[in-house]
Description:
- By secondary structure, the protein is α/β, with parallel strands linked by helices.
- It has 17 helices and 20 strands.
- The radius of gyration is 24 Å and the shape is globular.
- Bound molecules: 3-acetylpyridine adenine dinucleotide.
Amino acid sequence: xxxxxxxxxxxxxxxxxxxxxxxxxxxxxxxxxxxxxxxxxxxxxxxxxxxxxxxxxxxxxxxxxxxxxxxxxxxxxxxxxxxxxxxxxxxxxxxxxxxxxxxxxxxxxxxxxxxxxxxxxxxxxxxxxxxxxxxxxxxxxxxxxxxxxxxxxxxxxxxxxxxxxxxxxxxxxxxxxxxxxxxxxxxxxxxxxxxxxxxxxxxxxxxxxxxxxxxxxxxxxxxxxxxxxxxxxxxxxxxxxxxxxxxxxxxxxxxxxxxxxxxxxxxxxxxxxxxxxxxxxxxxxxxxxxxxxxxxxxxxxxxxxxxxxxxxxxxxxxxxxxxxxxxxxxxxxxxxxxxxxxxxxxxxxxxxxxxxxxxxxxxxxxxxxxxxxxxxxxxxxxxxxxxxxxxxxxxxxxxxxxxxxxxxxxxxxxxxxxxxxxxxxxxxxxxxxxxxxxxxxxxxxxxxxxxxxxxxxxxxxxxxxxxxxxxxxxxxxxxxxxxxxxxxxxxxxxxxxxxxxxxxxxxxxxxxxxxxxxxxxxxxxxxxxxxxxxxxxxxxxxxxxx
Length: 546
Ligand code: N01
């Protein structure tokens, strides 16, 4: 272990020294800790800002918070024991159930003793002479380690729009990503929700059932597919227990890590009747699988238009008030070119008398006043405002750590024009820093636990190999980064994703953020192969030194 190699006195300060420091105790940080500590025998430690494990599921406690991946796929797969020891109750796991699951996993693996909770990292600096990372927390903690691994998630830096007058508001306001643990009582309140992404679409039906009145402020109309959530049957639970190895193989070998394969047929190859029947069945079955009914939904404009039209028509059929239906179905982008939400009674919610929708395309928000929201056409009196306005995705959580590499180069400056990485794992100038599900990897385009396990396994193998060969420093080479960034953009340009310019995949939701398609869209299975080949070839594209 590092402690044996580098005595504490060798570091310039009284830092607590580890082989590896991991930032974040969600799915990624927990598995990384287990892998380094229990498989490699390293001294590894996790710093976590929250007071418990859970990551995104620790913070996102808004009403209706639930995962859009199916529960049997949204869990660790590396351990049969963990799989067999846990039983999900519903088709899609709710936030409290996922938090219980992650606590179950943390306790089973005995992880909490190596996690410092309530430790928010505010700076991480690489010291070249020592070949160590120095990490500081807001609480005054100072830690050092040879390897620094960020496990901070892609969607953990809340995006609160800078709307004038927010400080004047006399009611209460909340961002969904930083929801109060004690909950919010909407009873008898006039509530405004700003934002109709996956989060808003989950929260709106639940809030509307409690509030006196709900006004939804919609900037971009969105598709949504019914989730058809339900308790899991005993038969299904048995099927999962008995077939887990096969389910895991499917998840690991598909494009996006879900437990189903994408059908090998074109939207354009089937007759209108057959296509309609396929869509109707998928609509009735519910969930993200509808997207997988055809292979070209995200690559062929005509195919995408046909699916999009089917879904827009559904909105008009569900929403009874034609004026509301027109606002909700006026969608300006192709289905799934922004992350497609799934819902429980979302469009039906607009049939309630206490729910209105305001199109911000027709009347922009001018300011927030003491008593509500003022648009160019009128004022909406409110007691509570909920910002379901998303996240500074992918780069935001990393920038918040104030990471600086060789020569005190700030990551924020190096990525001023957009993120540049090798495989989404490493950045030039930041040796021994690994970014789990970093920009340039499939990450948010997949069922996250699958992408997380692949990254953690790769990082663990890499560190194990380095130790075997006596190497102490790994850093991505500039040429490898250049090549990888070309590949990331090329595969993105072959899809319809880059045609929708206002998605958070491109950073468009945060004013001033560079428009770069951040995740790797070449598919999880292909990405896994590429990473494995890189490792097999002695970490091609990385510089390894003693
Ligand atoms: O955020 P979003 P989210 N004025 O960015 C609007 C994951 N997730 O929290 O589309 C007015 O998608 C914005 O409008 P526009 C999932 O990956 C997962 O909903 O930018 N409106 C949009 O309507 C998801 O994609 C689960 O024009 C403003 C909304 O706010 C990601 O998290 C569950 C505005 C933001 O939508 C983010 O989802 C939930 C402004 N100034 C979420 N700024 C799971 O299943 C933004 N908006 C695990």
